[in-house]
Write a structure and sequence with these properties.
The structure holds two protein chains of two kinds.
Chain A (H helix, E strand, L loop, with lengths): L1 E8 L4 E6 L5 H16 L8 E3 L10 E7 L2 E7 L5 H19 L4 H6 L1 H11 E2 L2 E2 L4 H22 L1
Helix pairs in contact in A: 2-4, 2-5, 4-5
Chain B lengths: L1 H12 L4 H10 L4 H17 L3 H16 L8 H8 L4 H14 L11 H8 L4 H14 L2 H14 L5 H17 L4 H10 L20 H17 L8 H10 L3 H14 L4 H17 L3 H18 L7 H16 L3 H17 L1 H5 L2 H7 L5 H14 L5 H14 L3 H20 L5 H11 L8 H14 L4 H13 L2 H5 L8 H12 L7 H8 L9 H24 L3 H14 L1 H4 L4 H22 L5 H6 L12 H4 L20 H17 L10 H17 L42 H32 L90 H34 L30 H10 L4 H13 L37 E5 L3 E9 L6 E10 L4 E9 L5 E3 L11 E2 L9 E10 L6 E13 L2 E13 L5 E2 L5 H9 L4 E7 L6 H12 L2 E6 L2 E8 L4 E8 L4 E7 L2 H16 L2
Antiparallel strand pairs in B: 1-2, 2-3, 3-7, 4-6, 4-8, 5-7, 8-9, 10-13, 11-15, 12-13, 13-14, 14-15
The chains are: A alpha+beta, B alpha+beta.
């Protein structure tokens, strides 16, 4: 199970916060901060796994992250997930974002947090991996965008 | 014009959308909080508007603010409003906000039930999808209970997009509403082979239909099985089949991980797994898959650890692969390699220890995670033999390490490694003490107390070492460096606590007690922290007592007086201490010493009395000892000693608070009158602390002395030692010298041993031959330098056996520990919503919406009837399950896809056909498992097979699990035995080859059927170059490899040696399925034997009956009723006379040959349901009269129905 998916930038500003277990808002912020400090001090050329922070999970949990340009994508997962599999999944997620936003950059995430969520919802659902095939994900997103557009036209 | 105005006003209201909000926040960096609170006020205004678009926009902005940490729970009701918008755009916003902010405590959540239900049954798949996604995040027990049935229905939705989401969310539903697990499980299991519920689809996996749904099902079952693996063991054959057939890495990884969890429960499973896993390891290029395979192989090896001699190859393979990972430049692989290595280590330390070089190398890695992993590994790699060497290496790293965190980690690891399992690997405690002393040179470590604890522990528990320890400790007390650094915030001075205590307690071993005494009374000592000074003061007296005794025995009265004078001179500096404890002890002792001085002046011998103050032995007490003291008979701990004062709350509270504080000051166990709750709480806290503290020292010496008249001391096994190493080491010894000494010692030992062995050998030579062990030096051979006595910990007499319950009663997964093999009871059915939503518009495409139940009357009757049968079935089923798994496991691993022979008889197609043996092993077994027939039959058959002399047949499953189309919900239980049936019908045959085929529909890809053709070689020639050419019709086309033309034959992917059969599968696309049709085809092949090769041909006609387009689909009676009521089905009926077969078997036949499932059966009347690959619903009402059967059918296509009924008539006529 995936416990949380966090995206934040090099300064720790959250860009996407998705918890699959209930935490009060303050705790969520605390977790984001703590996670940020954990990954910040790590070089880019060292491994992408971190034995979890103290706030989330426990010994069974791992932080698996990737760093792209200005953004960190961090997944907090338990031992039922394959570490390398999750790394691949992050890549799929980011590539999907790239496809949907056409050359994604941090600004896209800043201004379209809702859309990022919708994309994520096609990849992970309730903490479980839903779809790993990028074409399938993109197809569903596009279909939903079309649906939205058609509704928009009706609106006038 | 008017429209424009409306639009304008909307635009104005939209003044600030999400982007504007974000921009605004970015522009107000200085007063962000103020700006946001302004925005929230605006949002509140917007939420008051009636316009749903405005509301949705506001909610969208709130979702953003939630991410920034703002609580938006106040808007929960508005979120629900937006969720119930009719437009997808808004609905999606609403559900997103809900999924981010709703939780079990959200009170308005109960208002969503109906809205969600409506969305779940919406005609738009995206409405349904969005509702499922949202629900997965905020499902509560109530929602789970109310919606379980709706979601379960969605698991059979026509759209894979919905199916996969519905399957996945079931896990959340199970967690919140465990009662739903058993009713839903059959359908979930079915989704493992998504396209075809008949169970035959294992083969279809080679052409995966909807990987998403399957992957979701695997995902859910893996999560379930991880928590309660034993309930899922019976699925092992099914998963095994998936593992050997699936090509989806994601699914494979999950399955392989699942097997890792299952093997500890069933070692035989492990044996079966080794081979396919090894193959995967060799063949896969995906690192993730490789890694998980290695992991599971390790798990298997652990479960088999004993008695499997020939698995050393597997271990070697794993270790070898892991070495490659560790040597990889990719840090991630390196990390994982080390992680997996540590698992092997537990059971096969030897194979890992040979890679010590590599692991020590990792200690130099720049990546801290990797260094820590390597340290972990070292922890398990030590043996008596290599401990010194490894620690030496670590010590050099301690010196090199930059950054205190890593150095501290190293320090704790060294201590950890050495102290593990009661100092098991330490052969020379002098060496260990020297290591500890060396560690005290670390500046700025936080772990001084750890070192101190170790020193104390070793000195107390290893009697033989005390003399040496004391000499080292006195040197520590004497040396200045610890004192010097004490002024800084430095934890290392903690070791002085241990040093002082050891020197005091074991002062009889001191070489120069006077010197040490002086060292402890130096003025600089007063700069130490209070608790250390206190220990100093206390132990100074012990030292003083022993010096006094020495002097008096030697008759040096003056010397004794001089010591007393020293005490009187120096103690006042402690009396002035700011620390209360120090002050109190010092003034007490000062008075005592002054008194002694007076006595000494009168020449009264005092040494005896002073020493008596500290007489007695100190023993380590087991950590559980206190808890294990049995409650004496007649003592009721719950009973009040004094009735509680019932008047005021404050009074009730006070004693507890007082007690609490007291407890903090004196962390010792007190026999307390605290109530049970308090006790339990403390016990829990302590347990927690002990569990969390890897350095927990099992027998911390209490600083308070225990006076004992010691009847208990004698029975503690204390072994006296004679030391082979000189004890007197001048100054602070370097631990290195011990390494050398140790080597020499071992060498000596070895020589001696060899001598002995030689002698023995000579003796043995005369006797019978025995396999003499090789003279390698194993761990056990190394005798410790000191006969070390780790004093066993004390336990109270008649201690109670452990009473802890490991299981956490609050574990949410515990509720899911449910036996899934038991058949369902009526009471377990999921609650179905009644009188609601009946008017939802629904298309026949959509899957079975729920309705109120048809009528109650027949149900009751049925219930009784069923229950009886169920009881019977239950027993049967239980036995069968157990046996089946055993059966599956008992066989040796299947020889890859070696085809089993087809029974050579010519009977076919008919109900009484012999079992088909062409299925591959795993699959056959699976069918076995599900086969509704009792086991006996199978055994008998097997016997027959064997007597026939077919040596190959390890198991010969009667390929008949289709025999009763799995009535999932209201299952029609079997009373009578059914004859075995085969769905394979004869296609064509000649002297060379016999072709049988089976046609299977699949839901996944519309209008496709898979034709499985079994080719059996009946000649003595080898058949090769087989090609199948089929003449396509307008309506049906064969799917050919890309680029090949319609006229090309399609090659058969195998050759057939004599007597062998194998199965090939071909996919056909059908346009219209309402009519049966036939396709002409030819099989061409080359038959080759010793005399030469001939080209041969065999013509055949492929018959697609309408039944073959049907897919067994379970259906609930309520949904069935709804379907019938809907009125858009056309009707037709047939009647067949002269039937003597029992109704039960009749139904089974219809289920089997025509792919129906029984919805409900009442006496001699049954309703049945099936669905075509193009989504036609087919409903049947089958009634049995005296000698006749009538079948009434309803179907969304009348032609299809009449054709089906004709086919059915033909089948029934044979009965």
């Amino acid at each position: 199970m995936i416990q949380a998916i966090l995206v934040f930038n090099n300064h720790g500003k959250p860009r996407l916060v998705r918890f699959y277990q209930r935490f009060p808002e303050e705790i969520q912020q605390q977790i984001v901060r703590e996670t940020f400090h954990l990954v910040l001090k790590r070089d880019d050329n060292i491994c992408n796994f971190l034995e979890g922070g103290s706030l989330i999970g426990g010994s069974d949990y791992k932080l698996i992250y990737r760093h792209y340009a200005t953004l960190y994508f961090v997944f907090c997962v338990d031992s039922s997930e394959s570490e390398l599999g999750i790394l691949d999944l992050i890549q799929v997620f980011v590539e999907t974002l790239d496809k949907c936003f056409e050359n994604v950059c941090e600004l896209d995430l800043i201004f379209h947090m809702d859309k990022v969520h919708y994309i994520l919802q096609e990849v992970v659902m309730g903490g479980m991996v839903l779809e790993t095939n990028m074409n399938e994900i993109v197809a569903q997103i596009e279909a939903q965008n079309r649906l939205e557009k058609s509704e928009d036209q009706v609106l006038g | 014009m008017a429209l424009k105005m409306v639009k304008g006003s909307i635009d104005r209201m939209f003044d600030k959308n999400l982007q504007d909000l974000v921009r605004g926040i970015r522009n107000h960096k200085e007063d962000e909080a103020k700006y946001i609170s302004q925005c929230i006020d605006e949002i509140k205004q917007e939420l008051k508007q009636d316009n749903i678009a405005v509301k949705a926009n506001a909610v969208c902005k709130l979702t953003y603010l939630q991410m920034l940490g703002y609580d938006i729970s106040w808007a929960a009701f508005n979120i629900i409003e937006v969720m119930s918008a009719s437009k997808f755009t808004f609905k999606r916003i609403g559900y997103l906000a809900a999924s981010q902010s709703f939780h079990e405590g959200t009170d308005v959540i109960m208002l969503t039930t109906n809205q969600i239900r409506k969305d779940l049954s919406s005609p738009s798949q995206y409405d349904t999808g969005v509702a499922l996604t949202g629900l997965s995040c905020f499902v509560t027990p109530d929602l789970a209970r109310d919606l379980a049935n709706d979601i379960m229905t969605l698991m059979s939705h026509t759209k894979p997009y919905i199916r996969k989401k519905a399957v996945l969310i079931m896990y959340k539903v199970f967690l919140k509403y465990p009662e739903s697990l058993r009713p839903a499980f059959p359908r979930l299991k079915e989704k493992l082979e998504d396209p075809d519920p008949g169970g035959r689809t294992g083969m279809l996996m080679r052409t995966p239909r909807s990987p998403g749904v399957q992957s979701a099902a695997v995902n859910v079952i893996c999560e379930l099985a991880r928590r309660n693996p034993k309930n899922y063991l019976s699925l092992a054959p099914l998963f095994f089949k998936l593992m050997t057939s699936s090509t989806n890495n994601w699914v494979l990884i999950k399955i392989i991980k699942l097997f890792g969890a299952l093997t500890p429960l069933e070692p035989r499973l492990g044996k079966k797994l080794i081979e396919p896993l090894t193959n995967l390891i060799h063949s896969t290029s995906a690192m993730s898959l490789l890694y998980e395979c290695v992991n599971t192989v390790i798990a298997v090896l652990i479960s088999l650890s004993s008695g499997m001699p020939n698995h050393s190859a597997s271990i070697q393979l794993c270790v070898q692969k892991l070495r490659i990972l560790i040597e990889d430049s990719d840090q991630n692989l390196k990390y994982l390699g080390l992680l997996a290595m540590s698992k092997i280590l537990k059971t096969h330390p030897k194979s890992v220890q040979s890679h010590k070089d590599l692991i020590l190398q990792c200690l130099d890695d720049k990546d801290e995670s990797i260094r820590l992993r390597a340290l972990d590994l070292l922890y398990g790699m030590v043996s008596k033999k290599n401990l010194m060497e490894i620690v030496k290496k670590l010590m050099t790293h301690v010196d090199k390490a930059e950054g205190t965190t890593y150095r501290d980690e190293l320090l704790t690891k060294i201590i950890d490694i050495c102290s593990q399992s009661n100092y098991q690997y330490i052969t020379n405690f002098e060496w260990y003490i020297s290591i500890l002393v060396e560690l005290t040179r670390l500046e700025g470590t936080r772990h001084g107390h750890l070192i101190a604890a170790q020193m104390l522990d070793v000195a107390i528990r290893v009697k033989a070492i005390r003399k040496f320890a004391v000499s080292q400790m006195s040197a520590l007390l004497d040396s200045a460096h610890l004192l010097a650094s004490s002024t800084q915030r430095n934890g290392i001075c903690e070791v002085l606590y241990a040093a002082a205590w050891i020197c005091g307690e074991f002062s009889e071993h001191l070489q120069e007690p006077h010197h040490t005494l002086e060292a402890m009374l130096r003025p600089r000592v007063t700069t130490l922290p209070g608790h250390i000074q206190a220990v100093y003061v206390q132990n100074v007296v012990k030292l003083y007592a022993s010096i006094l005794q020495q002097k008096e025995q030697a008759g040096e009265a003056e010397g004794a007086q001089a010591v007393t004078q020293l005490m009187v001179d120096r103690l006042p500096q402690f009396v002035q201490s700011a620390d209360l404890e120090v002050q109190e002890r010092a003034s007490c002792i000062l008075q005592l010493v002054k008194h002694i001085q007076k006595l000494q002046a009168k020449d009264v011998p005092v040494a005896e009395e002073v020493s008596a103050l500290f007489a007695g032995e100190l023993n380590p007490v087991a950590p559980k000892a206190q808890k294990k003291v049995p409650v004496p008979e007649g003592l009721d701990l719950d009973a009040w000693i004094n009735e509680p004062l019932s008047d005021s709350e404050s009074e009730d509270e006070r004693p507890r608070a007082v007690f609490h504080e007291e407890e903090q000051r004196r962390p010792k166990h007190r026999p307390s009158e605290a109530d049970e709750e308090e006790l339990a709480r403390r016990r829990e806290a302590r347990k927690q602390e002990q569990a969390n503290n890897p350095f927990y020292i099992k027998s911390s010496p209490s600083p308070q002395k225990r006076y004992q008249d010691t009847p208990g001391v004698e029975h503690i096994p204390v072994v006296q030692i004679d030391l082979s190493v000189p004890l007197k080491v001048p100054g602070l010894p370097m631990s290195d010298q011990y390494v050398k000494l140790e080597e020499e010692r071992r060498h000596r030992q070895k020589l001696e041993k060899d001598k002995r062995r030689k002698k023995r050998k000579e003796k043995e030579k005369k006797g019978k031959r025995r396999h003499s062990s090789l003279p390698t030096e194993s761990d056990e051979d190394i005798a410790p330098a000191q006969q070390v006595d780790i004093v066993t910990e004390e336990m109270p007499e008649n201690a109670l056996p452990s009473d802890e319950d490991d299981k956490d009663p609050n574990d949410p997964y515990r509720a899911l520990d449910i036996d899934l093999d038991k058949p369902l009871a009526d009471s377990e059915k999921l609650p179905i919503q009644k009188h609601r939503n009946t008017e939802t518009s629904k298309s026949p495409e959509k899957d079975v919406p729920m309705v109120e139940k048809k009528s109650k009357k027949p149900k009751k009757k049925e219930k009784k009837h069923k229950e009886k049968e169920r009881d019977k079935e239950k027993r049967k089923e239980k036995e069968k399950k157990a046996e089946d798994l055993d059966f599956w496991l008992s066989t040796t691993p299947p020889p890859a896809p070696a085809p089993a022979p087809v029974p050579s008889t010519d009977e076919c197609e008919d109900a009484k056909t012999e079992a088909q043996g062409e299925e591959d092993d795993a699959e056959g077994q699976d069918q076995d498992k599900k086969s509704p027939k009792p086991k006996k039959k199978k055994h008998r058959k097997e016997k027959e097979e064997r007597t026939k002399g077919k040596k190959k047949s390890k198991k010969q499953p009667p390929g008949s699990e289709e025999a009763a189309g799995e009535p999932v919900q209201n299952g029609a239980p079997e009373e009578e035995q059914l004859p075995p049936e085969s769905s394979y019908s004869l296609l064509a045959e000649n002297s060379y080859v016999k072709m049988t085929c089976d046609i299977r529909g699949s839901l996944q890809e519309d209008s496709q059927v898979t034709v499985a053709i079994v080719l059996e070689n009946r000649s003595s020639s080898i058949l090769k170059g087989m090609e199948l050419s089929v003449l396509d019709s307008l309506n049906a086309r064969m799917a050919r490899p890309q680029g090949s033309s319609v006229h090309d034959g399609v090659p058969v992917p195998f050759q057939l040696p004599p007597g062998v059969s194998n199965e090939a599968q071909y996919v056909f696309t059908i346009q219209s399925i309402v009519m049966a049709q036939k396709l002409k085809g030819t099989l061409s092949f080359i038959a080759k034997n010793d005399e030469g090769a001939t080209h041969e041909k065999l013509d055949f006609r492929l018959h697609f009956s309408c039944s073959s387009y049907l897919i067994t689909t379970p259906c609930y009676s309520d949904a069935f009723a709804k379907l019938l009521e809907s009125g858009d089905l056309s009707m037709s009926s047939v009647k067949v006379d002269g039937i003597r077969m029992s109704f039960q078997n009749l139904l089974a036949k219809i289920c089997f040959h025509h792919h129906f499932s029984v919805v409900e059966r009442v006496d001699s009347c049954a309703s049945m349901y099936s669905r075509s690959i193009q989504g036609h619903h087919v409903c049947l009402l089958v009634k049995k009269g005296e000698n006749s059967v009538s079948v009434d059918g309803k179907c969304s296509d009348s032609t299809l129905l009449s054709n089906l009924l004709e086919e059915m008539k033909a089948t029934l006529a044979k009965c």
